[in-house]
Write a structure and sequence with these properties.
Order of helices and strands of chain B: HHEEHHHHHHHHHHHHHHHHHH
Strand content of chain B: under 5%
Strand order of the largest sheet of chain B: 1-2
Shape of chain A: globular
Number of helices of chain B: 20
Largest sheet of chain B: 2 strands, antiparallel
Oligomer: heterodimer
Number of strands of chain A: 5
Helix content of chain A: over 70%
Radius of gyration of chain B: 24 Å
Radius of gyration of chain A: 29 Å
């Protein structure tokens, strides 16, 4: 059932009003008004989103709410419009974006309270929410791309929010450029789809048309394979940029220099999951491109493992969480790559709860320690920051996939899907990563909240628990992190996997290729997670000297991980520097200055000497010179006209 | 109507020369640019969407013995360029009155208004001779604008500009005359009227030479790689208003020339030349971006970015499908708006600091937040952020290119990445970071006049980003008509090639048959 639902526009209008208010009036009306308007528009958007969600719930399965706002780019047969669409998939995403978004907006009021650019911060944050909602609500790929680049812009602006620090400004730009590389793939993917459809007389990027014509796209050949595979791979390149996967993940760890609520909202809960959403949205295309799905699953699993290894040794609390995010996103891609799109989206949701919470807790710790991010200078904060400790512990249990916390259900579903779609090697990688995950997360908990206090003395006295505006979001997300996974219980238990059933009309059912024993699979993953916790306990509580000895004994490996496998250095050496050298030495100095201009000036020398002679005669009178030139032109014209006539 | 739009500025220019009070001069110049702006909006409103042909046509015999007529008209391709011209000239004059031009204001206004007449005339002329007259008219004022009110090596730059353009336009003149001469043999009377000249069948050799001459003249103006080197010099040394008009409108005369003259007059040659022009356009896109990245001077940087952006326009034109040409025309407008805006912004900071060296700035956001904010929006428009105008044009161009030649689109897409790279890097060095130079701490933020100069541009960026339909629906019929000519030519060319291929294989087939017969014996 398809229903016109004009109220969908309200979900966009309110954040847009927030942007306008904060941009033009924010500085004048002051902090109080901004701290009301900024979060309030998000709560209203959340209310409208809930209304839409309710409508979807009560309507028969497969129903959609749509609203076409206006026709957008139309050239020749190609048509695209600004149209919004809520089905089960976008309903879930909208709820996450507005719900978690509203909580983090509220948290920001406390966190940014002392920042002088309060209004600018909320302008960006509201603009981000607007862009993200456009991305989620778009009914066609091109409008989705508007949101896609819009969130990238906001990410850039917010990473570089404290712009006076040149490193922060650099990191912001790095994020934007790396994302643009992915976006180039996204663009080419869209062109491939349009081209393939145009071969069959359709000219659209509407999800509806794409779905109806998916078989046409799959039957069109291009560069030795099908257009579906090419388009899927190109779009996935876009996803690796936005969702920080190999090879384009390098921007995300550097993005952590932005304000911590931004890391929670943009670089953990919402924006970085856009790639997963996009693939789930285009599930009909990806299932017709098995080779592309295989690539997605492989990249996902490898990224999950790779990022987790780096997270093992990082001393910076936010860096650990950043690599953890990359790793968890890898799981999501493993899920959708195994054609279990519901599992991927399920993990998007639970991850939004627990990773958003983890970042907010980290922010609370950082806030309490006046900006300290090095875990070597923390410890024993358990009693001083009780709310932060307990909520963070819950989030850690969730990400470590300890039942019955939310992460358990979603991660389990992904690993099961990986196994049952025949990716045994990827499943093994995923299970090992599960062990690594609980190790580095409990390492973080132990180093931050247990043991001896290593906090600087002058900061020791100022440690304080956060204000209510920060504590309320922590508690709300802790509740969600605990019970949020219960919407997708294992089949046969209570209401079973209601989440997957809800999404099935949009993303289809998961069809296993290999039959596995879910209980067995779950047991393996969970035990590895448990081992990770025990090892962390041994390393950081029982035998605190052990990590130091190990780091010394395995110096090479430790340095490799600490320096993030030297990937940034590699990119710098093989891409950035050659590009600049080529541009400057070869093109700018060589070709432009020397070759082309040299040749032109050589030819121009005669002109200039003549000019010099004329100038000497005319004593430098430009006007006169130009007059002579005009006469010359007219003379030539007259001469040719004469020729033509005779 | 069109006559009024074209010649009101000239009338204003003449009246201004009789004034001596500076205030009066600025006000009068502003009014005389405002009235054509109003008229062009009226024209826009009255323009019948969905029609491909010329509208508001005016035709009077001028030199009947030579078949030269005063023939004006506006169609979808020139419509918005006319509006862009009147708008940018108005903004330039309005902005320049605020202190950018301090000496010889009267002469300055005179030249700008004469230039406007030249530009509008060239856009609206439907007669080749009339077009050429206006084409030359716009050259001279620009020469003076650079030469008198410019900075640095302004004489060298002005001269380089004139020499480059003259080389092309003299070739074009020869080509026009040759074309008219050939046409006379065919039509049995002499004419410079464009629609009539479209009908003239030319021999392939003749058409190739004439196309080459036209194409070179326009390619210099665009400017396409490798005849672009006049542009950075001209821009860097021109006064702000000069750069705005040069980049915003004058460069489009090149791309407009391709659409109006070079391609429809010689469609078969144009089709043959697709690989060449696509290659040059792609080189221009990437080369312009990479060289822009290495410029230490803000204005030079923007100038090289124009090479890159105009490469996109050329790519769209030579994609020869409706998406490509719609996108190209749209991108011409976008470039006028965003690059015009960038030059204004560079001019504003130059006025405060008397330098354009990027290394002289840094941390400006702290001292001039409004400036930095506006700069951000204009920059985003320039790098084609979806939701702003630049994206619509770039998207359609790249789509058109992809449908024509996939490889070219793959290269063009890298231009999108590089565009973001040099722009954001520049922004970072100018606006972000700590304030390194003490002078930058005390510079004043934009004043009312400066903000007012930018507001229309920013409004257009947003409007054209979200509502491209009213524009494209007016551009498209004319673009489609042009395309029809090209398609016919392409079909003809294919057929000829096919026949040539048959002719090449047939004898061999015959030979083998003879051989077979011989072998059987």
């Amino acid at each position: 059932m398809t229903v016109e639902f004009p109220a969908l526009t309200l979900i966009l209008i309110f954040p847009a009003l927030g942007v306008l208010y904060n941009l033009f009036l924010g500085y004048r009306t002051g902090r109080g008004a901004v701290s009301f308007v900024g979060p309030a528009v998000m709560f209203v958007a959340f209310a409208v989103a809930s209304w839409a969600f309710y409508e979807i719930m009560v309507m028969p399965p497969g129903s959609v709410l749509t609203y076409s706002v206006w026709g957008w780019i139309e050239a020749g047969n190609f048509h695209t419009s600004i149209g919004l669409r809520i089905d089960a998939l976008s309903a879930v995403m909208t709820m996450i974006v507005t719900g978690v978004g509203a909580l983090i907006h509220l948290y920001s009021v406390g966190y940014m309270a002392h920042d002088e650019d309060f209004a600018r911060y909320f302008t960006y944050l509201n603009l981000f929410a607007l862009s993200m909602l456009i991305l989620v609500l778009a009914d066609n790929l091109l409008l989705m791309f508007v949101g896609w680049e819009g969130v990238g812009l906001c990410s850039y602006l917010l990473i570089a929010f404290w712009y006076t620090n040149p490193q922060f400004a650099y990191n912001g730009r790095k994020a934007f450029i790396v994302n643009r590389i992915g976006d180039a793939g996204f663009l080419l993917g869209m062109f491939t789809l349009i081209w393939a459809l145009s071969q069959h007389g359709a000219w659209s990027l509407d999800f509806l048309t794409l779905k109806a014509r998916a078989s046409d796209i799959a039957s069109t050949t291009l560069v030795g394979t099908t257009a579906a595979t090419v388009a899927a791979l190109l779009l996935f390149l876009g996803a690796t940029g936005k969702s920080a996967q190999i090879p384009l993940y390098v921007w995300l760890p550097d993005a952590m220099v932005g304000p911590t609520p931004v890391s929670a909202l943009i670089h953990a809960a919402t924006m970085v999951t856009a790639g997963v959403y996009m693939i789930a949205r285009l599930n009909f295309l990806f299932v017709l491109a098995p080779a592309a799905l295989m690539v997605v699953a492989t990249i996902g699993a490898v990224t999950a493992f790779f990022a987790a290894t780096i997270a093992l040794v990082q001393p910076d609390i936010k860096k650990v969480l950043a690599y953890s995010t990359i790793s968890q996103l890898g799981y999501m891609f493993l899920g959708v790559g195994s054609a279990s799109f519901a599992a991927g989206i399920f993990h998007v949701m639970t991850h939004a709860f627990f990773k958003g919470l983890l970042f907010l807790c980290a922010g609370s710790v950082i806030h309490a320690l006046e900006g300290e991010q090095d875990m070597n200078k923390m410890g024993a904060l358990r009693t001083k920051l009780p709310i932060t400790f307990w909520t963070m512990l819950i989030a850690t249990l969730a990400i470590s996939a300890v039942p019955p916390f939310s992460g358990y259900f979603s991660k389990d579903l992904i690993l099961e899907a990986a196994y049952e779609s025949g990716h045994t090697a990827l499943w093994i990688l995923g299970v090992i990563t599960a062990g690594l995950t609980s190790f580095y997360m409990f390492r973080l908990i132990f180093m931050t909240f247990f043991g001896e206090s290593r906090v600087d003395h002058e900061k020791e006295h100022h440690i304080h628990e956060s204000p209510p505006s920060m504590a309320i979001p922590l508690i709300a997300l802790a509740v969600l992190s605990s019970v949020g996974g219960w919407v997708g219980l294992p089949e046969g238990l209570a209401w079973g996997d209601a989440f997957a059933r809800f999404l099935a009309p949009v993303v289809g059912d998961f069809k296993p290729l290999v039959v596995g024993n879910p209980a067995m699979l779950s047991l393996v993953a969970t035990s590895l997670g448990g081992i990770g916790i025990i090892v962390a306990y041994l390393f950081y509580i029982r035998l605190p000297g052990l990590p130091v000895i190990l780091a010394w004994r395995l110096k090479g490996a430790h340095q490799l991980l600490l320096n993030k496998w030297y990937i940034d250095e590699l990119y710098n050496f093989f891409v950035t520097r050659p590009l600049f050298w080529f541009s400057n030495t070869i093109l700018n100095r060589g070709v432009d200055h020397y070759a082309i201009d040299g040749a032109v000036n050589g030819a121009g020398l005669t002109v200039e000497t003549t000019g010099e002679a004329v100038r000497r005669v005319e004593s430098g009178n430009v006007q006169h010179y130009a007059f002579v030139y005009l006469l010359g032109v007219l003379g030539v014209v007259a001469y040719y006209i004469y020729l033509v006539i005779h | 109507m069109l006559t009024a739009i074209i010649f009101l500025p000239l009338l204003g220019a003449l009246l201004i020369m009789m004034q001596s009070d500076e205030r009066t001069v600025w006000n009068a110049a502003f009014v005389f640019s405002l009235v054509p702006l109003g008229l062009s909006f009226y024209m826009l409103w009255q323009f019948r969407a969905g029609e491909a042909g010329y509208q508001f046509v005016e035709q009077y015999p001028w030199i009947p013995s030579l078949g030269i007529s005063y023939h004006l008209g506006v169609d979808g391709i020139s419509l918005f360029l006319v509006v862009l011209t009147t708008l940018l000239i108005t903004i330039s004059l309005f902005y320049s009155a605020g202190g950018d031009i301090e000496e010889r204001a009267r002469e300055f206004c005179f030249f700008v208004l004469v230039l406007e007449t030249g530009l509008l005339g060239a856009l609206l002329a439907v007669d080749l001779f009339l077009f050429y007259v206006f084409w030359e008219v716009m050259l001279i004022p620009m020469y003076f604008l650079i030469g008198i009110w410019g900075h640095g090596e302004r004489i060298y730059a002005a001269l380089k500009f004139v020499v480059f353009t003259m080389v092309g336009s003299l070739l074009m003149l020869v080509a026009i005359l040759c074309l008219v001469f050939s046409a006379r043999q065919h039509l049995e009377h002499i004419t410079f009227d464009l629609p009539m000249l479209y009908q003239v069948p030319l021999s392939t050799t003749e058409a190739r030479w004439l196309f080459a001459a036209f194409a070179l003249a326009f390619a210099i103006k665009v400017p396409m790689w490798p005849v672009h080197t006049w542009l950075p010099d001209a821009h860097t040394n021109a006064p702000t208003a000069g750069s705005v008009i040069l980049a915003g409108i004058m460069l489009k005369m090149g791309t407009y020339g391709f659409l109006r003259f070079a391609i429809p007059l010689f469609p078969e040659v144009a089709v043959e030349a697709i690989p060449l022009f696509m290659a040059l356009a792609v080189i221009g896109i990437i080369y312009g971006a990479l060289v822009a990245m290495m410029q230490p001077d803000l204005k030079r940087l923007v100038a090289y970015s124009s090479v890159s952006h105009l490469g996109f326009v050329m790519l769209g034109i030579f994609a020869f499908n409706i998406q490509g040409i719609d996108g190209a025309v749209y991108q011409m407008l976008n470039h006028g708006i965003s690059t015009g805006g960038l030059f204004l912004l560079v001019g504003m900071i130059y006025l405060r600091r008397h330098t354009r060296e990027i290394s002289e700035f840094g941390g400006l956001w702290k001292s001039v937040p409004i400036y930095a904010g506006i700069f951000m929006v204009v920059m985003l428009s320039s790098i084609g952020l979806p939701g702003l105008n630049g994206f619509v044009g770039e998207f359609l161009i790249m789509l058109g290119t992809f449908l024509r030649l996939k490889l070219a689109a793959v290269f063009a897409v890298t231009g999108v990445i590089l565009g973001a790279l040099y722009m954001l890097w520049t922004y970072e060095r100018v606006q972000f970071g700590p304030i390194t130079k003490a002078v930058n701490e005390t510079i004043a933020d934009l004043n009312g006049r400066e903000i007012a100069s930018m507001v229309p541009l920013i409004a257009l960026m947003l409007l054209m980003g979200f509502f491209p339909r009213p524009l494209i629906s007016r551009i498209e019929p004319s673009a489609a008509r042009l395309l029809e000519r090209v398609n016919v030519a392409e079909a003809r060319l294919d057929e000829r090639r096919h026949r040539a291929a048959l002719a090449a294989t047939a004898p061999r087939g015959l030979d083998s048959r003879i051989l077979k017969v011989a072998a059987a014996k």
